[in-house]
Amino acid sequence: MTLKLGVIGTGAIGQEHIRRCNNVLQGAKVVAVSDINVEGAKAALQRLNIEAEVFADGHDVIKSPNVDAILVTSWDPTHEDFTLAAVAAGKYVFCEKPLAMSAEGCRRVVDAEIKHGKRLVQVGFMRPYDAGYRALKKVITDGDIGEPLMLHCAHRNPTVPESYDTPAAITNTLIHELDVLRWLTNDDYKTVQVVFPRVTSKSHAKLKDPQIVLFETQKGVRIDVEIFVNCVYGYDIQCEVVGELGIARLPEPSAVQTRKAAQLATPILTDWKDRFIGAYDVELQAFINDVKADVLTGPSAWDGFAASVAADACLKAQVSGAIEAIEMPPRPAFYDKK
Ligand code: NAI
Ligand code: ISE
User: Fold this and answer.
1) Is residue 286 over pLDDT 80?
2) Most CB atoms within 10 A, among 15, 53, 57, 254?
3) Is the CB of 272 inside a 6 Å radius of any atom of ligand 2?
4) How far is the CA of 199 from the centre of ligand 2 (A)?
């Protein structure tokens, strides 16, 4: 049986996911889409050479009897509403990050899902599916570098639009690290502080860029994450784990090195679409397979909630300049891994 997907939001990642579901992955097909920019949605389908029904309202995609499962790829503040509507309709939903704009919003999704009685939500945290992060986690869990003591991370984008502001560095960008670092270290955050270096002249009026976010975890590990979203030179994700016995580093994406004109050169990627192309493929194939098997196993609404609990504290720390506590409620048994 081919799983019939409805996609809400046909912008950059919406188009990427439509393309991969129809042309790369197995077992699913996009049959309906929606975007507030209806003409943009139609043009996107035409460019992709894909036929699907186009709705002006995402809720009509969710209600459509022709649609089995939903992908939410619209702007961040719309995610909670569409995900709640999908859960209310009893449909599986893959929601891009962040699950909601606050922990309170994520909690509403968690509560709705628990009330429904079965996991229906997967959050688009794709890094745990990335081959490099998986290899890094294996080195840590195998004990090769001993117990982790410190992590040094960076999340750099070449540029961001004028609409992107100082809080978005947390809710839109750091949210990936907030998820993947919990998964990588099997630990939880205890405190956070945000410090602001000199602002780059490449930034916009509403954005203090770069930012350094400093965490202490429950196990006493210290983590620093640099978020620098107008770094100009490339899309660069770094993660170095300093352990008791050695250091492990996230591998660079493979690229051909050239020796020419008295220089050694290795290209750096410039776009998240290319950096995580393999991870997006694996995460969505897993979602499709899991929906067909009627059991979700990928990043859950609880993972979305956990990342947003930390994000809320980061937002507070951005304003206060102080060290803020991160208090994670106990995970409901509903989310115990089967
Ligand atoms: P985008 O701005 O290119 O596309 C978003 C689309 O959503 C636009 O076409 C917009 O018209 C549409 N939209 C907004 N409100 C809507 C509504 N109420 N109903 C239907 N459509 C609506 O943005 P992009 O980069 O595609 O990001 C979309 C989402 O995906 C964001 O939440 C972002 O955080 C997430 N994302 C995740 C990535 C990942 O690595 N997992 C990478 C890039 C984006
Ligand atoms: C974007 O929305 C993403 O999710 C990308 O993965 C991330 O690296 C980028 O910073 C975000 O703006």
Assistant:
1) yes
2) 15
3) yes
4) 20
